[in-house]
Amino acid sequence: MNFAYVSGNAALDLAGTVGSRRDEPDDTLATPADLERWVAACDELPDRVTADFPTFEFALSLREALYQLALDRVLDRRFDPAGLRIVNDAAAGPVPKMELSDAGLRMSGDLRAVLSHIARSGISVLADPQACLKECGRPGCTRIYLDRSRGARRTWCGMDACGNRVKAAAYRARRRAATTAEDDGPSRTT
Ligand SMILES: [Zn+2]
Prior knowledge:
Elements: H1 10-15, E1 18-19, E2 26-27, H2 32-41, H3 53-74, H4 81-91, E3 97-101, E4 104-108, H5 111-127, E5 133-135, E6 144-146, H6 159-184
Antiparallel strand pairs: 1-2, 3-4, 5-6
This protein binds zinc ion (ZN).
Zinc ion binds next to helix 6.
């Protein structure tokens, strides 16, 4: 299973580990080991954490709360109070250690601290009136991302996952329509 880090923010990427939320939710974090791999594969998080079951459950409730708040933001409505409580509580915990070197940023800490960091980064983006949050334009994707493009003209969460799929489907539909039109050709007057 490959994870996608395309939302422009770790909290939104965590929320995006469930796809197709409105149809058939597809959860890529089925076990604590999946969460360990998700953290390790995320560039801005520590390379190694261990997930016990209670912290895994906590991570999933944080994820759902972050999604709820991000959706509230996209739909321009008041934040869900239960979601706010969960995210604010998570953000209040100890945070990971950060170090700068010529190789860049290095972060270390346990999973609990990583979740605090994710909650904080979620709060920063959700509180920022300039942040342009959007839901992916592919019907059924449901991923929410931060559009940092000039003029905020981005339509998809990611080109590979969604943009190219939608374009390929549109191309096939056009071909189908063209073929049908050819078949109908001789009998058509317009
Ligand atoms: Zn998408």
